[in-house]
């Protein structure tokens, strides 16, 4: 009479072991999936930062094709296209991201950025106008300022630049842009102050150094500012100052600055040599 009971017990034990095996397999599979997700995330990050931009484009293009509709891969492709200096394609890719059901307001801002890079200022303005004013980010206001600049809406531009400066801990870039805006308007002293502020925040920002020299030269101040600079940078800034002087018909000063630039540069300074040769030819003729 005990045999059926023993058989039933044996069958129950086998079924229990099978269930344990299946449960264990499922746990292992889930763990492997988690590892794969982590590995893929790390690879995506690498592709977006240190990889060659065009290699990153190819990677995200393949990944998006294999797994269509994944917004993280779509974002990776859009960002990589911008990094690869392919703004028109990047704008199209960001449009696809912004149209996705899981898109965020920051995706809209990145779309506006891509449209500006592809010279579609009206499109960028339309995108920014559709973003609620309560969504306040540094990048949003920096782009708003650039659009206002393009429309020559100077008071709006100043307001947006000021807001953007207050929303970042690294304001050098936006201060430089704001200074260049002032420079194009002819507010040279205002531009000079902003370029100086930019360099106070980032003393290595060469574009701000060059713009500062332009602003000073436009006021016929042909002395280099007291700022950190390498010997090569000093030569380049002297060259910029010389061209500014020549443009304002201060020929003698310009000639002297060109000579100083050539002497200062540790290597052969071909651009300054060409400028001096062209100046001498024009004076002779």
Automatic annotation (TrEMBL):
Gene3D superfamilies: Tetratricopeptide repeat domain. It comes from the Bacteria. The keyword Signal applies. Residues 1-19 form the signal peptide. Keywords: Signal. The keyword Signal applies. This is Tetratricopeptide repeat protein. The lineage of its organism: Bacteria, Pseudomonadati, Pseudomonadota, Alphaproteobacteria, Rhodobacterales.
